[in-house]
């Protein structure tokens, strides 16, 4: 996702078996948010980028997770960021954890 996106994604299934440094969901630029409902993100590729990766500072005020499952065989953390740009891994994890019905495997 890039630009000034705050889209809603309902009933989705993302499977990542290979990555080019983006994770299953990739918050590419500052100010990006999104609402994720009733979905599963499976990360099966260990590459240093988490299931949800933030390159820059995500708009966590306009981001939510409801009934979302994060799983997979990757050894990476589920939430990662690019530290040089001040990414939002910890903040996105907090938003995920405060959502309803989310599962972190």
Structure write-up:
The radius of gyration is 12 Å and the shape is globular. The protein has one domain. 31% of the residues are buried. The longest helix is centred in the C-terminal third of the chain and has 10 residues, at 89-98. By secondary structure, it is mostly beta strands. Helices cover 10% and strands 40% of the residues. The strands form two sheets. The protein has a four-stranded parallel sheet with strand order 1-3-5-7. Strands 2-4-6 form a three-stranded parallel sheet, covered by helices on one side.
Question: How would you summarize the topology of this molecule?
Answer:
Layout: E1 6-16, E2 25-27, E3 33-43, E4 52-54, E5 63-71, E6 79-81, H1 89-98, E7 103-104
Parallel strand pairs: 1-3, 2-4, 3-5, 4-6, 5-7
Q: Count the domains.
A: 1
Widest sheet, order of strands: 1-3-5-7
Number of helices: 1
State the separation between the terminal residues, measured CA to CA: 24 Å
**Percentage of helical residues?**
under 10%
Shape: globular
User: Any low-confidence stretches, pLDDT <50, length ≥5?
Assistant: none
Q: SSE order, as H and E?
A: EEEEEEHE
The secondary-structure class comes to mainly beta
Major pleated sheet:
4 strands, parallel
Radius of gyration, in Å, reads 12 Å
Strand content: 35-45%
Strand segment tally: 7
Mean pLDDT: 91
